[in-house]
Amino acid sequence: MRMALIGCLALTTACGAKVQDYGSPTPVLPEADAPTVFTRAYGLTESPDGKIRVFAKEDRDLTRLYGMRLQDDGSWSAPKELDFPKRIKLTNPSFSFSDGALYYASDADIFDRGQRDGNIWRVMPTEDGWGEPAPLPVSINDGADQLNPAMDRDGRLYFTSNGYDSIGGHDLFEASLDEASGEWTVTSMPEGFNDARADAHVAVTPDGSRIFFYSHRSPKQGVVDIWTAERGTDGRWQMPENLGAPVNTPGIDFGAGLSGDGSILFFSREGELMMISLEAALEGLESSE
Question: What pLDDT score does 10 carry?
């Protein structure tokens, strides 16, 4: 099934080549097989130089990462499964706007502690492949589930966890790195930002001024919606808002990601990868005011 999918994707010559005027949700891989409830794709992310794309795709209980490379003719290569350490799950890919590394979550055992929770890993892309993946230190991966990483240009890391002082299933947290010690300091989002149920699939703009994630909270348009929050001029996060139409629908909209220049929002609609200009995506906020 996986090889059939990849062969189908290879028929797409443009393969979702980026342009700047997607005014409405547009399929990234229009020739791909339609997703099922067991084969949803989500979390498409693009490297800051715009040359690599990575996304997660489910296969029943398994989740894998797939990568694509921009080719000389402007088309994208067929998605290729990435062979990173895992037990059964690789998920939540996100390129850092700070160091260009790919951050993602894996359930591979780390630190010889026999755990089966998810932890955040980091790997640098190379010209024709990938470097050596490594988990972030215990100052991030504390033994609970750490998932959904995203990093802005200033090196601020956002992720979700059911550890620390989370109030729900998985809450959003922000972390900063002490370059001298190599340790991370984790801080909670403002009171009222997180919901009692899980929030997930985090994306952040390059300048760190806006964050996206999916949530089951109300008011909502569908089964699950994409929400967004803006960082105020005082540096504090405002309360999240439902992104609204044209991104959210009565169905399942989730798995946000951003293009390398931050101009395009990627997301998943019922498991199909979609793209829309960030400007058009934010129009739903204006129409709800």
Answer: 34
